[in-house]
């Protein structure tokens, strides 16, 4: 069984409102109709009472009633009371004067209502037929009044003619006005409820679309009133909620992706570490096994094998130290102490120490750093970073010279360039130079003793100290690492 379509909010407002207004209008119309009808009837009664009262007053003042009766006949000749009948009887029931056809006298046994009221109250009126047994006779308005001494009574009657009926009936224009008023009120009620129902209809449509389609376009076409303001506030809260949900979902996706990438990187790192450790450990084991299996080996060969094992052991120790350093930078970067570092002095000390170190390929190091170049950093980390850059250039650049210089500065940072005059790197390798254990020439890298962690340590050092680092090929040839370090200012609270 199909459900009936519910009545809209507008019609649920309109129907009872119009019903109530029509009820009020009809009640007022009926009240006005009865009031108007009573007023017109009372006006005829007042005319009859006025005639009776004046006749009685003339009688009390001993004025001749004959002229007054003639005046009444002429006065009402062309009015709605044309045809009025007036009869004056004495206490014995004899007719004294009359206007029009005399009204029959009645005995005490069959007094009509108006005479009965006149006898008891002094005056009375009634609306009845002249003869209740004769249905063809018209209705009459009757009036009666007795004198103060009770010697005469005046009996008046007015035939219920068409002109009298029209004068006593309520004007039909009243009903036209009532109907027009009801129609106008209905139209006003329709547009008022339509205006009020528009907000509810829009909210209802919004709720349905929000429940069924989250990507719908929200139409903010609400009227500019209190209900419209409430509706717009609801829409605003919904938008904020949807935006918050989208942000939450986006952050959730980013967090999931970051977790997956972290797991992937960790897995890859574990595999790389496992692979990198196996090589020196395997070589060391091979040399030691050879020495153990050949006790008759000559001293020169034994010494050479032990030296080779020591070289690979040194490489293994360097790799473990680098792993410890990069792990400390990544996991405890916020705990690294930041201090004022004289970068010119640091570079000068590195250059002086290199004179006492026999680099593999004997690359020369130069620098162009001004005096009083103070940066926010950590002396040991920056020292190790610069050593790693120099060794990387010595091991892999195939160049003869490398150096560092300032390329630009502003109010908050220095930008440095470390460069060499080697062969450079193919563009496809540049994005991966800071990856752990990434080697362009894997065989040669191991042969020269690199751990594959020098450049990742460089990048993490710069990041921990709040700077950035980029790598690009250096013109005309070679490789350039461009990195930034924050200036040391007089207010240490500003250093971040």
From TrEMBL:
Enzyme class: transferase
TM region(s), chain numbering: 13-33, 174-192
Keyword check for Phosphoprotein: yes
PANTHER family xrefs: PHOSPHATE REGULON SENSOR PROTEIN PHOR
Database matches in CDD domains: HisKA
One of the GO biological process terms: cellular response to phosphate starvation
The EC number(s) this enzyme carries: 2.7.13.3
SUPFAM superfamilies, per the entry: ATPase domain of HSP90 chaperone/DNA topoisomerase II/histidine kinase, Homodimeric domain of signal transducing histidine kinase
SMART domains referenced in this protein's UniProt entry, alphabetically: HATPase_c, HisKA
Cellular component terms (Gene Ontology): plasma membrane
GO molecular function: phosphoprotein phosphatase activity; phosphorelay sensor kinase activity
Designated name of the protein: histidine kinase
Keywords from the named record: Kinase, Membrane, Phosphoprotein, Transferase, Transmembrane, Transmembrane helix, Two-component regulatory system
InterPro entries: BphY/WalK/GraS-like, HATPase_C_sf, HATPase_dom, His_kinase_dom, HisK_dim/P_dom, HisK_dim/P_sf, Sig_transdc_His_kin-like_C
Catalysed reaction, written as an equation: ATP + protein L-histidine = ADP + protein N-phospho-L-histidine
Pfam families associated with the record: HATPase_c, HisKA
